[in-house]
Amino acid sequence: MSDEIQKADQIAFHFYTKLFYAVHDARATEGPRPQAKVDKWFNLDTPDCDLFTREAREPFRSISLASPTGPPPLEIEVLLAIPELASDQVLVYAPPDAPRVKVDPARGFILLETWTLSLQLYRGGRAAPDAGVDVALPTIYKHGIVLFRSLYSLLRVLPAWK
Question: Which domains does the chain have, with CATH numbers?
Answer without folding.
Answer: 3-77+111-122+134-155 (3.30.900.10)
